[in-house]
TrEMBL record:
Start and end residues of each Type I restriction enzyme R protein N-terminal domain: 30-139
InterPro entries attached to this UniProt entry: HSDR_N (IPR029464)
Stated name of the protein: Type I restriction enzyme HsdR N-terminal domain-containing protein
Gene3D superfamilies xrefs: 3.90.1570.30
Highest classification ranks of the organism: Bacteria, Pseudomonadati, Bacteroidota, Cytophagia, Cytophagales
Matches recorded under Pfam families: HSDR_N_2
Length: 147
């Protein structure tokens, strides 16, 4: 992914990165690095408004509390894109995709993306709400906001 302008600082022996969505400093883990890159990539290159993104939002699935990495909404508040981020050394497997698809059964976003910062896989969720249609490239905000 392309580089972006980020803010880092040290605190108590840990490197922190500033999250522009949550407006706070977070411990810079490999997964957080991927999450922050994705937020900036979506905003700077694909036109997704920061105001319509939510990071690490809680959701309930089968009475269990889960957290979604990134969810992008339409202006009307409808979930458009659900993103699952993994650390760069984590392989994207069928289990990873299944995890994101299971979360999406509750969220009902129209698009699903799984990334480890190196490999990105994106799908359009079919009208049945379960089947996934693979996409060759990540859609822009304008493209997914039309559907």
């Amino acid at each position: 992914m392309p580089s972006f302008s980020y803010k880092l600082k040290e605190s108590e022996g840990k490197t922190l990165i500033h999250d522009v969505i949550r407006r706070k400093w977070l411990v810079l883990t490999p997964e957080e690095w991927v999450r922050q890159h994705m937020v900036h990539f979506l905003h700077n290159f694909l036109g997704f408004p920061l105001s319509l993104m939510n990071v690490e939002r809680g959701t309930t699935y089968n009475k269990l509390q889960k957290r979604t990495d990134i969810c992008v909404y339409s202006s009307a508040g409808t979930p458009l894109l659900l993103i699952e981020c993994k650390a760069p050394d984590v392989r994207i497997t069928n289990n990873t995709v299944q995890q994101a698809a299971v979360y999406n059964q509750t969220i009902k976003a129209s698009y699903l993306l799984v990334t480890n910062g190196i490999h990105h896989f994106c799908w359009r969720v079919a009208s049945d709400g379960v089947s996934l249609e693979p996409l060759q490239e990540l859609p822009t905000f304008e493209q997914i906001n039309l559907h």
